[in-house]
């Protein structure tokens, strides 16, 4: 190939041109001056000399990077890491080993520079805030107080029990797990990617809240910490959000657990509160320690914010692993089904378990043991609103959400906290396509001045609203008494369940016989002077009233669908759940209702 260049080109310039063209075209190139005959440079193509594959090894550049990564993975100052065992908790990377290192948590060690856990797919933002604490021009001290590795927050993706999840985990050795600008950005990205991927989110939290001395740039910004809760709201009902608390979660950090679908607290070490004990004392004068303010017992028994309480970190993981077996990865998917197992106890014992007298107590857990698959009951918030049991279970391997009155507590009467608990559980089941099973044995909503102050009407409204609006298959069983508005909230005939069936012990009425006789016939009975005649008349009236509310009469009038032999109840439910497993059930087209907590899942359903 001959190439002409302008007159005056130097031999070096001509050679550079010839070399570039020879390499590009793979042929010999001669460069001549315009109108000239003799080349001023000629270059033949050459083959670049690459090193042999066997000679390639990591360079000093890569070794330096690995040292930097190891330094980051060491976490905050050593003195803070050394204190963790005394506090009863793991270093964050040891915690990730437990969660994502395989079934026994042994893959990976969590030690700086070691192999990551087998289930850790990748980590994002490891170098966050790196320039703020680790400039290349200075020596690093593993105990320097201003160490900010990963800005105190680890985010990424992992495999948990064979399922892909997004996760975040606070590093308590870095400024007590507090949140600042770079960590906030990582948290937000993780949430927004979960919205796109449709994978569950784990929040492994141990945070003292916002980093007050570094709040510029993340507190009130459009993409700041406030966006956490916007994203929580958008994720709500889209993918399961599960939060596990390993230490104090104060102020802004405390909102993530309550926004999550499920919250697990570790006994004795975790707490959440809107303000620290010191701040509480400053504002109110109240002196209180953190556990009394917002420990696991407080939120399990009094606020209802803790769904499950774990004995230790390993137990927390096992609880979440169990919980995940009932949940799909995202809304619209069918929950995972397991192999069917017979119930723990023979269904033939059901009729003998349920007393004839409406107010005689029994444990509904014993009834569940004769209906659902053995060892499949996972009760949520068991110590809050105890007169209603909310639990996941399986029937013939199929996940169901159980809402059951508990006659062993307050005769199964519905108090405000139980109504709130049931409503939120129903709505969560509906968001994730988990069929509902109501076991009704209640005298109705509790009456009295205190429950009115506690909002029985407001919470009862939410309970009834949730039952009315749920679009998953619903089965209702009247096991004994179904009085007053209790039958409305518990999936009665007017609330479009797929079936309302009853056991022969069932009764459905405005109120129980004793209350009814007193309300209607008090004057008539008072006019009977003879005590024996009065007792006889009262017994006649009571018997007539019980016949009037007996489920056989309700079945005769086709108020309910069927009265079934108690020993056949499980088989009946298996058949009905299977038949109605795929149905089209809708609610009126509207933006959303006016019950505050229900709007987000409904919006998702209609988009």
Summarize this, please?
The chain has four domains: 2-43, no CATH class; 92-324, 2-enoyl-CoA Hydratase, Chain A, domain 1, CATH 3.90.226; 347-506 and 550-586, Alpha-Beta Complex (2-enoyl-CoA Hydratase, Chain A, domain 1); 513-549.
Outline the structure in words.
- There is one protein chain.
- Helices cover 36% and strands 17% of the residues.
- Helix 6 runs parallel beside helix 7 (226-235), helix 15 (416-431) packs parallel to helix 17 and helix 19 (513-526) packs antiparallel against helix 20.
- The chain contains 23 helices and 20 strands.
- Strand 7 (201-205), helix 7 (226-235) and strand 8 (241-245) form a beta-alpha-beta unit.
- It is elongated, with a radius of gyration of 34 Å.
- It has four domains: 2-43, no CATH class; 92-324, 2-enoyl-CoA Hydratase, Chain A, domain 1; 347-506 and 550-586, 2-enoyl-CoA Hydratase, Chain A, domain 1 (Alpha-Beta Complex); 513-549.
- The strands form four sheets. Strands 13, 14, 15, 16, 17, 18, 19 and 20 form an eight-stranded mixed β-sheet that branches.
Set down the secondary structure blueprint.
Blueprint: E1 2-5, H1 11-25, E2 29-33, E3 41-43, H2 60-73, H3 78-83, H4 92-100, E4 120-124, H5 130-133, E5 153-160, E6 163-170, H6 181-197, E7 201-205, H7 226-235, E8 241-245, E9 248-250, H8 255-259, E10 262-266, E11 271-273, H9 277-284, H10 290-294, H11 296-303, E12 308-310, H12 313-324, H13 350-353, H14 364-368, E13 378-380, E14 388-395, E15 398-405, H15 416-431, E16 436-442, H16 449-453, H17 456-469, E17 474-483, H18 486-489, E18 499-502, E19 507-509, H19 513-526, H20 531-549, H21 551-556, E20 562-563, H22 569-579, H23 599-605
Parallel strand pairs: 1-2, 6-7, 7-8, 8-10, 9-11, 10-12, 15-16, 16-17, 17-18, 17-19, 18-20
Antiparallel strand pairs: 2-3, 4-5, 5-6, 13-14, 14-15
